[in-house]
User: Which sequence fits this backbone?
């Protein structure tokens, strides 16, 4: 499932409702920061040129139409389009994953029933914009989680841990977290499904 192409003229050159844009001079470039309705920075970009003097006292910008300089406004529109494109890509990956695993809750229940104190979390990898599955547990469940992941990976287990799977072990607390990228999360969940079939 591919996200809609937002690089074409069909994109809306407008800030999402309640969002703002802050422009700041930085040497001979203008730094642009897109903020959500809560004020958190969501996307950063740059315009190759100084910030127009009339904008310095009008921060933050609440409407792109208020940027009178067409080149700076075009850079701001590209920043908004890039953010919307990232959101669309992440949503497309999440939708595809959800369609692949309509039984996700029951599959994750299998994990939490086998691994004492296991917590499961689905999120989005901010770099790849794909789904990420994190399985974490405290000392009491670390061995069981490690055994479960090793069983899924087969005879080699974690000896040849492929890219896209990371284990974080905290020595002092003996807590363990296994992070699986979308491809490996799908493989792990499919394995759980077939094992319990």
Assistant:
């Amino acid at each position: 499932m591919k996200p809609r192409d937002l690089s074409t003229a069909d994109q809306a050159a407008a800030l999402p409702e309640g969002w703002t844009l802050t422009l700041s001079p930085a040497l001979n470039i203008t730094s642009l920061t897109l903020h959500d309705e809560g004020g958190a920075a969501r996307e950063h970009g740059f315009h190759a040129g100084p910030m127009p003097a009339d904008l310095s006292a009008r921060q933050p910008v609440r409407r792109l139409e208020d940027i009178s300089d067409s080149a700076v406004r075009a850079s701001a529109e590209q920043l908004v389009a890039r953010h919307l494109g990232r959101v669309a890509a992440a949503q497309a990956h999440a939708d595809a994953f959800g369609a692949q695993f309509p039984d996700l809750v029951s599959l994750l229940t299998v994990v939490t029933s086998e691994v004492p104190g296991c917590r499961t979390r689905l999120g989005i990898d901010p770099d790849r914009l794909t789904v990420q599955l994190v399985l974490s547990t405290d000392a009491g469940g670390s061995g069981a989680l490690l055994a479960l992941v090793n069983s899924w990976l087969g005879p080699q287990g974690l000896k040849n841990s492929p890219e896209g799977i990371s284990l974080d072990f905290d020595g002092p607390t003996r807590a363990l977290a296994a992070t699986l990228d979308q491809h490996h999360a799908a493989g792990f969940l499919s394995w759980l499904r077939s094992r319990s079939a």
About this structure: Strands lie at 20-26, 29-35, 41-47, 119-124, 131-137, 165-170, 175-181. DSSP finds four helices and seven strands in the chain.
